[in-house]
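Researcher: Sequence of Glutaredoxin family protein follows. Predict its structure.
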Amino acid sequence: MSHHVTLMSRVSCHACEEAAVEIERICADLGATWSVEDVDSDPELRAEYGDRVPVFLVDGAEHGYWKVEEDRLRAALSA
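Model: Prediction complete. Tokens:
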């Protein structure tokens, strides 16, 4: 089964940029897909995630925020 990671991000967020690099590498290693959503493009997303970006979703469920925990993300994508 292929998994999908969504990075909840915003423009000019250094931590988001770092997370994107890590997520891209991990997803490439494991054959998972990933995408980026700009929380500032939607008031509901901004209200939900705006104070915690970057936030990571795996298959639509919140998995973590601020820093990618590589071992934990790899485990989720390997399940």
